[in-house]
Amino acid sequence: MRGSSLASLQAVQAEFERALAAVGESAVGLGAELFAVTDALDDSGSLRRALTDPSRDGKDKEQLVRDVLAAGFNPQTVTVVVAAARARWSHAKDLADAVEIFGVHAILADAEHAGLLEQVGNELFLASRALIGAPAIREALMDPRSDKNSREALLTTLFQGKVDPRTLTLMRRAAGTPRGVHVVPALQRFSDLAAERRNRQVAHVTARTQLTAVQLERIGDLLQRAYGQKIQVDLSVDPDVLGGLRIQIGPDVVDSTVLSRLAEVRRRIAS
Description:
Blueprint: H1 3-23, H2 27-43, H3 45-52, H4 58-68, H5 75-86, H6 92-113, H7 117-132, H8 135-142, H9 148-159, H10 165-176, H11 183-197, E1 201-207, H12 213-227, E2 231-237, E3 246-249, E4 252-255, H13 258-270
Parallel strand pairs: 1-2
Antiparallel strand pairs: 1-3, 3-4
Helix pairs in contact: 1-5, 1-6, 2-6, 3-6, 4-5, 6-7, 6-11, 7-10, 7-11, 9-10, 10-11
């Protein structure tokens, strides 16, 4: 999300946090309703266009939201969606993306209140790693012939009782309603949002072998000094990495693997 959409997301975030405080212990319910709104926006192009039309009056958009969500929705859900609808989005899809992000944050906030936010973030990341190593399960989750219920049931069978219920809720969301994104990157994105909620950025580190706790701490300290804030280090082990490390933080990539250096040498020779 870029440009005016990113600015709108940040502006609506403040309204969302106020709504989150107002619902108290009902944060999971707020998240479920925001996911339902996301699905409605995905299913209705006309609704999406109506709520993101820059020529349409903000009060008119607000009334449309209130009409659509009149039955059974928490007033705080309506408040968040109204704020999102009145904002300006570069693309119509960005509105649905933003509402889903707030839904994820609501689930994460519930984990935060329970003192389990770090655990949920880690579980989401580790689940994405586990699925990378299980191609048959990953293919079943990506099969276009499978339906939402069967995908959610598969993940529930695999992970129920092994992860926090909030983690499982987000995993079921990633698999059941992928929204054009494969389950692994969706889980990684949710993990990134958990890190963001902890006021940290995430460094995805890839190495050939498992690093020690001391090495990971050293990497985190170096990155913290470079970026001026705490960095959560998530490690992936890839046997195809011949040496060195590949570190990605958002769009920034630091690749010091042997293969990367050889590729750079080849580029220089070719030029």
